[in-house]
Amino acid sequence: xxxxxxxxxxxxxxxxxxxxxxxxxxxxxxxxxxxxxxxxxxxxxxxxxxxxxxxxxxxxxxxxxxxxxxxxxxxxxxxxxxxxxxxxxxxxxxxxxxxxxxxxxxxxxxxxxxxxxxxxxxxxxxxxxxxxxxxxxxxxxxxxxxxxxxxxxxxxxxxxxxxxxxxxxxxxxxxxxxxxxxxxxxxxxxxxxxxxxxxxxxxxxxxxxxxxxxxxxxxxxxxxxxxxxxxxxxxxxxxxxxxxxxxxxxxxxxxxxxxxxxxxxxxxxxxxxxxxxxxxxxxxxxxxxxxxxxxxxxxxxxxxxxxxxxxxxxxxxxxxxxxxxxxxxxxxxxxxxxxxxxxxxxxxxxxxxxxxxxxxxxxxxxxxxxxxxxxxxxxxxxxxxxxxxxxxxxxxxxxxxxxxxxxxxxxxxxxxxxxxxxxxxxxxxxxxxxxx
Length: 436
Known about the structure:
Elements: H1 2-15, H2 17-27, H3 29-48, H4 58-76, H5 82-102, H6 105-131, H7 137-143, H8 165-188, H9 196-211, H10 215-232, H11 234-246, H12 248-254, H13 261-281, H14 288-299, H15 310-341, H16 351-364, H17 374-391, H18 396-416, H19 426-432
InterPro entries: O-antigen_ligase-rel_domated, WaaL-like
Subcellular location: Membrane
Keywords: Ligase, Membrane, Transmembrane, Transmembrane helix
């Protein structure tokens, strides 16, 4: 009986190993990070042994470039600690390949639900820790309730189990987009009733985003809300955009710590200039995320852990190799994003989830670098892998050209005042249709 129970437990862990790792990333972050890393290392080892396929695309090229940069930095700087970053990136790559091969609609929906539950946990725990700070360092490191920030106190900002308010805000924003995408799908399908819990959880997460005190996070949330309205009702979305320009001063007042925006801008400027100098000093392989702190301390304040800009961060931490690879990856994702944005999402099951969630990475990366944390980087790797799996078979170039052709033809008929030819031929219409 005990052996049977043991076998069942082993089968359960093997079947839901990814989901267990994601849950642990919220509850016990160090264990969750190692759990997902082991999944990645194990799968990468199988790919090297040719037991599973190795997918070569811009995303895997990006991870390979980061790994090469980290290894190069370790040798050029003669610092053995940088090998840890090399191993970490190999874990990211392996996890990406694992998801790319196994991702299904069911897996993505489980991922979505765990992220939503994790967001509620982050906010609830953050509010508790704010009132009753954790004093035991070991317990704080194990549960993610130990603050990692330049200041020793959070200043009333919640961070839950993500070590830093900005990392928490990033995870809440990704979850927020999942809920909005689900809400958008329900609004489009009138037969599906919207539960009151959807609104309650949405409001709770919005409150949580404000409670993190992240200015970039709240600004990103407003942009995501605009994209949501634009997808749900384009005319209303454009009207809101116009009103936002007129009421920009009032909008600035709701941004957390808005009184310090100017002061923060000068600090960011100094950090960016110093980060650029670090890249110039380490142009090929960078410093890795471990070496950035030390390199910065030689040029500026010793309390800046990263570049506070995702593009500068990749150039400074992974040199020209990693920076150019990140630009290539960003261009690829942006091209896919633009190709899909104006598609009708009613028959595309996951389209709106990605349309709303992917901008969070770049928008928060303008004034911060949330992916410097393995906790957020691993969860983002899962999201990007699902995106690549979802879009892997789509003929983007061909259909984008057809869409552009349709747009030009419609505009030409409109300008000529010809109402008889406003539509393309049936053949062109059929060519431009594809299902995701």
